[in-house]
Design goal:
This protein has helices at residues 18-29, 42-54, 69-83, 106-134, 162-182, 209-216, 227-238; strands at residues 9-12, 33-38, 59-63, 88-91, 144-149, 187-194, 249-252. It has 266 residues and is an alpha/beta fold. The longest helix has 29 residues, at 106-134. The chain binds beta-D-glucopyranose.
Amino acid sequence: MEKLLANQVALITGASSGIGYGVAQALAAAGAAVVLNYHSHAEAAEKLAEEIRHAGGAALAVQANVSDPSQIEQMFDACRAEFGTVDIVVANSGMQKDSAIADMTLDDWQAVIATNLTGQFLTAQAAVKEFRRRGSRPVSKALGKIICMSSVHEIIPWAGHVNYAASKGGIQMFMKSLAQEVAPERIRVNSIAPGAIRTPINKSAWDSDAALKKLLELIPYGRVGNVEDIGNAAVWLASDQSDYVVGTTLFVDGGMTLYPGFADNG
Ligand code: BGC
């Protein structure tokens, strides 16, 4: 049987670790040629590219800071040079720089907004331009697909993380507004909102028994997520199986957004 994303090209930003890494693996396993963007971990991105090639896929690792427009341009040039175009763009790069409000430096505020919000804007903007430039391809019903990596914190307030929560709250309306703007061109824009996924970004929340117990109280389904949970969702959102899904946030969170504090009669 032909793979779900056969003959398509996917770009994943922040693919050298965590959720981006898992999404890249999943899209490659579904048959897409993948462009693996990384910021500082060249070795991890090159290793993943090599593994994908070894398994019979196609992959290219490309360095870029997603908050820099000229580096975004170079990254899309690299996609075009290697694979001709791109069909699926996962705007995933993200970071946390946590602190209480009085201690949060302007640098920590700006760094998180620059990567998590401005980075997704620049990535999606370049994606839309590339989809328009190359016109439709027989590989998908859509002209192109953009997946924004949001978070449960696009709706759950998060004390001590105002920069991060503001960036993800911003992604919610960025994604919906962009989806509305480009849907008439058959460009599908959606978000995935992961809950607690076992990655380096939240290691302190799951790497001790006490922390894990506390975290599980927030997850009705009773387990921490893994990157495959997000990868599977990304494959579906990138494929024609979700062709009528436009401007939606898909929560993949084991029920974290179900107000678990109310499970026992409030
Ligand atoms: C954050 C993680 C956190 C999870 C659930 C994610 O967006 O990056 O650190 O564990 O949300 O709170």
